[in-house]
UniProtKB/TrEMBL annotation:
GO terms for molecular function: phosphate:acyl-[acyl carrier protein] acyltransferase activity. It is found in: Cytoplasm. Homodimer. Probably interacts with PlsY. It is an enzyme of class 2 (transferase). Pfam families: FA_synthesis. GO terms for cellular component: cytoplasm. Signal peptide: none annotated. GO terms for biological process: fatty acid biosynthetic process; phospholipid biosynthetic process. Keywords: Acyltransferase, Cytoplasm, Lipid biosynthesis, Lipid metabolism, Phospholipid biosynthesis, Phospholipid metabolism, Transferase. It comes from the Bacteria. This is Phosphate acyltransferase.
Amino acid sequence: MKLAVDAMGGDNAPESIVKGCKAALNTFNDLELILIGKEAEITKYIEPSERVRLIHTEEVIEADDSPVRAVRRKKAASMVLAVQQVKAGLADAAVSAGNTGALMTAGLLSVGRMKGIERPALSPMLPTLDGAGFLLLDVGANMDAKPSHLFQYALMGSVYMQKVLNVAKPRIGLLNVGTEAGKGTELTKEVYTLLENSSLEFVGNVEARDLLNGVADVVVCDGFSGNLVLKSIEGTALALFSVLKKELTSSFINKLAAGILKPAFKQVKLQMDYSEYGGAGLFGLNAPVIKAHGSSDERAFFNAIRQARTMHEEQVVITIQQEIAKNTEAKEQE
């Protein structure tokens, strides 16, 4: 597999990005990388080889750049060139930890939206208490959604969980303010009916407070609500670990207890760590494009690469296209 990497995207680029790439090369023997960015900075951590090709560019899309304007004006930016490698057939997938809106724009303009998908979704895996995790669609690609958008999110999410995480019948939940069928906005009420009458394993409305308990394998919502959920989970986890650290170092006795419990705390942190779940897939594009977390360290970026590789190996995009085509054909026959 050939993977294009934006080596300059993210808070810790290029060091963490390149180190994550090196870990991936050591793990996956079939992986070849195209690293795009400032060559002098990249070569501090890795040298070109049979499996590593460098494309030098000085242009970088910054986190505070306007997405559409940046993609159109910075045509030689590392992120843009990474996605264009996929468009040109020189790479099977692309990964970036850079500006989310710019990556979505670049993906749409270069890779293109798959036929039958009205709006792509930004879709991360989030942790659950049982360690299985759940897929949340959408977390910010589209703030204003239609019922058909959320139904397509459910189809794409179901395929992803089947192919990548081997869940035979992914449970689909609709994020809402209550579990009753009549709850919510006009949007959620219409989506509820669509999902209820589909062949998907729809488990009904789910509340935000139950998400970490693993109430569903795939949770669909509009991008505004999804982004709030994502940021709330991230913020709560960071705050919780901060409080624990403060309390466990507040006295000599607490420090002794912390030393004894250190392995258990490490396991908890590992289970709730976003870096273990890879990045957020831009579902609905014609090739795998993965948005790694902006603050990705080496481990997080490695897992984003692993996610892109799995999506390619399991032909997730092709399977989604087939499922969308089946759904479109069934609607035409009604």
